[in-house]
Design brief:
204 residues, alpha/beta, 8 helices, globular
């Protein structure tokens, strides 16, 4: 499934507009890949996705992230070169970074973002019952698209104003601390690390 991103006060898109904005070679999939998602256990699933897409007659170009925030920069660079279809492969963090790069590019209204669930949570895709790499590839190859409202949060980061875009959820307080603990103390538990992080915060 490809997401057509839109921020507050948007005007409804008509189908002709949605079909007319893509001028790139749609046979090439440009995939932003986070090799550290799911504790680095993503390579096998990525290869399965590549094989699935290639069997359908498409070429694949992998753009590997090297540091936190790199997916955002890669998305912006791709859009600067004229790409209007981007796929990210990783977890919710990779999707978040990619979305932020697209939204900051100035061309979000002309860009579609596909997602491959290679990470631990993959919460956004689960909301659409996309649970496996095969599910995601089938939706993408079928040309399935959905308009998605993107949230925008202004906050202070070490005393400086900052902005972040998000999809299905934004967390504060206990939720944010549980997520931090999952990554710092309970990463070895995979998706259950979030439960452990939350339980560790309960009094007593």
């Amino acid at each position: 499934m490809y997401c057509e991103l839109r921020e507050g006060n948007h005007k409804p898109r008509t189908k002709p507009e949605s079909q007319s904005i893509f001028v790139m070679d749609t046979n090439v999939f440009h995939i932003i890949f986070n090799p550290n998602a799911a504790r680095g256990k993503t390579i096998k699933r990525l290869h399965a996705a590549i094989e699935y897409l290639q069997k359908a007659g498409h070429s694949v170009e992998i753009h590997e992230t090297e540091y936190p925030g790199h997916a955002s920069r890669l998305a912006e660079q791709m859009i600067e070169t004229g790409l209007r279809r981007i796929t990210c492969a990783g977890g919710d963090g990779t999707a978040l970074e990619t979305i932020n790069g697209v939204m900051r590019s100035g061309h979000a209204d002309k860009t579609q973002v596909g997602m491959l669930p290679l990470g631990t949570g993959n919460a956004f895709l689960r909301d659409f019952n996309i649970l496996t790499v095969k599910d995601a590839c089938e939706r993408i190859l079928a040309g399935s698209t959905r308009a998605v409202d993107v949230g925008k949060l202004h906050y202070m980061n070490d005393g400086a104003p900052a902005t972040i875009f998000f999809l299905n959820i934004v967390g504060f307080g206990t939720l944010a601390e549980a997520a931090r603990l999952r990554h710092s103390r309970f990463r070895f538990l995979g998706q259950y690390g979030y439960h452990a992080g939350f339980l560790s915060l309960l009094p007593g």
